[in-house]
Amino acid sequence: MTQFEGSHILSVSQLDLDSINTIFNVANKMTPYALREKRTKVLEGAILGNLFFEPSTRTRVSFGCAFNLLGGHVRETTGMASSSLSKGESLYDTARVLSTYSDVIAMRHPDAYSVKEFAEGSRVPVINGGDGPNEHPTQALLDLFTIKKELSHSGMGIDGMHIAMVGDLKYGRTVHSLSRLLCMHKDIKFTLISPTELSMPDYVIADIENAGHKITITEQLEGNLHHADILYLTRIQEERFPSQEEANKYRGKFRLNHNIYTQHCKSNTVIMHPLPRDSRAQANELDNDLNSHPSLAIFRQADNGLLIRMALFALTLGVEDQLEKYECPVNWYSRKADR
Amino acid sequence: MTQFEGSHILSVSQLDLDSINTIFNVANKMTPYALREKRTKVLEGAILGNLFFEPSTRTRVSFGCAFNLLGGHVRETTGMASSSLSKGESLYDTARVLSTYSDVIAMRHPDAYSVKEFAEGSRVPVINGGDGPNEHPTQALLDLFTIKKELSHSGMGIDGMHIAMVGDLKYGRTVHSLSRLLCMHKDIKFTLISPTELSMPDYVIADIENAGHKITITEQLEGNLHHADILYLTRIQEERFPSQEEANKYRGKFRLNHNIYTQHCKSNTVIMHPLPRDSRAQANELDNDLNSHPSLAIFRQADNGLLIRMALFALTLGVEDQLEKYECPVNWYSRKADR
Amino acid sequence: MTQFEGSHILSVSQLDLDSINTIFNVANKMTPYALREKRTKVLEGAILGNLFFEPSTRTRVSFGCAFNLLGGHVRETTGMASSSLSKGESLYDTARVLSTYSDVIAMRHPDAYSVKEFAEGSRVPVINGGDGPNEHPTQALLDLFTIKKELSHSGMGIDGMHIAMVGDLKYGRTVHSLSRLLCMHKDIKFTLISPTELSMPDYVIADIENAGHKITITEQLEGNLHHADILYLTRIQEERFPSQEEANKYRGKFRLNHNIYTQHCKSNTVIMHPLPRDSRAQANELDNDLNSHPSLAIFRQADNGLLIRMALFALTLGVEDQLEKYECPVNWYSRKADR
């Protein structure tokens, strides 16, 4: 039994390197099930309450499929309009009631700290699927997990690596949380590339510096990528800007394409992006001409998200050692051969 | 085989004391599955059509989870906009088609008697999950079931008890249906506390009187609770008022908190509320300072709702005697220890 | 292994008579499972991504139930608003990511050819559930399957039959696709009955003529039905008209009821309609007084849709020969006795 059994996963700040390693080890054990080489019914009969009070198709579907892949049922809700919260119910009451209906809950909500408040009323483990501007811990974990896996192909580890973060570093929640996780590691070089108006918040920079890492801050993409092992691109978070005009000023400011990559990056620099990328002509921060490049890790990131979420369900429900016991063969056509 | 197998559950008026007892007995058998002490796959492979033409997160999720707890699949629809009903299709046609896709249907719809009309075209049993201002029989059943269980702790039964109903007795559908079920019992004292404008409809009062029960009608909370065994509070049903201003006149009119409870109620008066309660300062009909009071039964009500819905699925599908046959152990972390 | 294993089903134009026969044979094998005489767990553990970027309750639920009937899980999305497509993501990216989460995808989208574009990025088979004005191949297949089954009761086949198509032949996508499938057969007589403004598009007429079939085009219902073996009625597709006023001009123009049927049709002319039918008084293209007529095949069409979708899932996932291997009895009340 791990520290996770019966616990909530609310913030990356509740994790240390040991517990992160535990999660990553279980995530690795999930690979054959996600690839459909075999399947497991370890959570057959269990129910996930997939409560998305703020819609997010991809994250919701990813949590739901992760649970299905372990054999469980999923009950969902999307949006706030028809929920009792709109009739003045407290998050505590909502949690007391809805947590009776499931064995574990994944929750997204537009308000910071709402998931924590909900968790206090819940009778079952709650996993934070994003609480507005605050945290999105499963995204941070899948990003770190991806970095670790990608660098291992070149024999590298996270300690000592060089990461360049590019784009909207102000509103891009994922770079904040990832930085926090990287602070637990040693001797990392950060290159932060953004317009001054969209630069990394001061508290994140302070955290990085206090952890003893090196930071370079610049507005220039070209010329600053040569040493990067990881290139982490972000979308301009238009929906968080005061106006569309304001957002438009920055769309298309930084663009990576095959030509720029070849000219300015090492040959094996890993390209990451939390997705969705904006592929409209006026934005296009990461061009489709890199789609078949072996260093493009963006779809492997999404795949890893599934593994991380499967791992967190297994750990909070304490079944991480029973996966094999409930294994079955996959008797249908599966995509594994294509990958 | 009971009278329920293959039948619709449309109204409390189709039930008598015997059939209610049958439902309650099966609901009691559901307790260990809902508490996750063990599980049953009795409805593995069966499909619930969870058709919510009017959104209601909680009731929808409760029906869905009840079906999952019996091992079945759930297919859902929410809202009317994208349904064929908006293109002029009759409820009969909708029922003929959608009932081919499932083994049992739970349905909510904004129009009175719509569920009955739908049931006439359905090839499978239909359970009314609320048809607008008309009925919500599973809520009435869970309320009665809760009263019975709570009173049994003090060695009491429903016959001879004293119930105080408080708040919006005009628009609060649950107090109407519950009264109807209580009319089947003997020698009950009703204290009805509401503003004159929100008082219990005349036809409900007539039913209660015709059944030989005693009624006290008052606008005053304090001083009228001393003899109540059950205190049934309701929320002002703002959404049913002609205007928000009209609703605001009554918000916060009756409030129960720890102080008032201690001063005006017997020490074991059971506190019930159909939920959601409005916890905003201007309403707050039931204060959070009673949250840990042992007589607060509001969350046990919600738990009982799950048992009642499981029982109705088992009965309409005729599997109430096969639960044990399909039992399995629960191999994951479960909340049972916390309760 | 058939040609379908691992393939997309995007258009009826990818099918020939042989492959259609393969689908129909598997669909026939699905009948006892759909009728609940027994069940199969052949796809237990598999996940359907039911992606409805344009809402359609009935088609979505039909795909989902078809997958549940084979034992699989269903993850869904409805509408476009909360999807990454609204943030500028390409269909290719959406497909790369979402196809990681499932074993097969059913997709509806408002734009023509969008499903094909999506399929190019997908790692798993994609079944077109309707791509706007373009195609809806499962509807066309279920229509043809229905014609074949219904005519076989009179010892007839599709070759040589006479079909009358009535109503909105311009915007009614189903009559276009069905015509395409009928073109693969021999010696069919088409009677096309519509207002001139809503007549069958020229390219469909050209296809029919090129295939050597006979066409009669008329604006008159009465007097043109005497020889029809199949009467295929359609709803005025109001939502595709430039204005409601424009649509109103044609509502109620053609109506079939018991009286007209008896007077103008052969005694066993099969009545079909893709549903929903508009039963409001001002439209009412197919009257309820025919509801119990044995030649009314409209609800059998919907039933057949389930069989066709089950067949396509089984074929694309290559399990069509394993259905019996994973059979189980149905242990609950089932509607089979009523049919």
UniProtKB/TrEMBL annotation, chains A, B, C:
NCBIfam families noted in UniProt: asp_carb_tr, PRK00856.1, PRK08192.1
Any Pfam family hit: OTCace_N
Give the protein's recorded name. Aspartate carbamoyltransferase
Enzyme Commission numbers on file = 2.1.3.2
Organism taxonomic ancestry: Bacteria, Pseudomonadati, Pseudomonadota, Gammaproteobacteria, Alteromonadales
Looking at the record, the residues that make up the Aspartate/ornithine carbamoyltransferase carbamoyl-P binding domain are 8-148
Q: Which reaction does it catalyse?
A: carbamoyl phosphate + L-aspartate = N-carbamoyl-L-aspartate + phosphate + H(+)
**Domain Aspartate/ornithine carbamoyltransferase Asp/Orn-binding residues, every copy:** 159-315
Q: Name any one GO molecular function.
A: aspartate carbamoyltransferase activity
- Entry's InterPro entries? Asp/Orn_carbamoyltranf_P-bd, Asp/Orn_carbamoylTrfase, Asp/Orn_carbamoylTrfase_sf, Asp_carbamoyltransf, Asp_carbamoyltransf_Asp/Orn-bd
Listed PROSITE patterns: CARBAMOYLTRANSFERASE (PS00097)
